[in-house]
């Protein structure tokens, strides 16, 4: 046997070693990992609706933010850890100003202030939980418009997005 032949035989034996050790065949299985990641839930006002009642409103006094009520709400998260959130209010925009909420009276609207800054309807603002802005609800109307007497209402939804 020559040295070359011996070398070739040795290489072939090394290449076949895994097959010889495993008995000439092998078995495998796939492993699938699955689960679901949950973020501890947060709630606004414990899931309860919020009613703001302006009671009797004099149409000539609506200008200059005379009718203002605090939006009494509370965001609570189960784990209570600090986190960035997006807070926003959705609803139908008013013809008075597209940043305001429309009401059942066409020239009457509701505007929102968060910490004394305009909080445009349908626009997200960043907050750092557990700090929550003070939100004021204010009646507004088109300038020089005479509003009809009668009841009015409006509906909006408060949302939070969080990670």
TrEMBL record:
Q: Which SUPFAM superfamilies does this chain map to?
A: Bacterial adhesins (SSF49401)
Pfam family name, one: Fimbrial
| InterPro entries membership | Adhesion_dom_fimbrial, Adhesion_dom_fimbrial_sf, Adhesion_dom_sf, Bact_Fimbrial_Adh_Pro
Q: Which domain of life is it from?
A: Bacteria
The record lists the membrane-crossing segments as none
Task: Report domain Fimbrial-type adhesion positions.
Answer: 33-163
**What protein am I looking at?**
Fimbrial protein
What lineage does the source organism belong to?
Bacteria
């Amino acid at each position: 046997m020559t040295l070359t032949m011996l070398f070739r035989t040795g290489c072939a034996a090394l290449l076949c070693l895994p097959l010889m050790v495993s008995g000439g065949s092998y078995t495998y299985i796939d492993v699938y990992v699955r689960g679901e990641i949950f973020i501890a839930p947060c709630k606004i006002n414990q899931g309860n609706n919020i009613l703001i009642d302006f009671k009797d409103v004099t149409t000539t006094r609506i200008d200059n933010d005379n009718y203002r009520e605090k939006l009494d709400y509370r965001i609570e998260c189960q784990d209570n850890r600090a986190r960035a959130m997006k807070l926003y209010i959705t609803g139908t925009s008013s013809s008075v100003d597209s940043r305001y909420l429309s009401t059942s009276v066409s020239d009457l609207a509701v505007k929102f202030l968060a910490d004394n800054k305009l909080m445009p309807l349908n626009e997200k603002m960043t907050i750092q939980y557990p700090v929550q802005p003070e939100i004021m609800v204010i009646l507004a109307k088109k300038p020089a418009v005479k509003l009809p007497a009668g009841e009015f209402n409006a509906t909006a939804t408060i949302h939070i997005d969080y990670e």
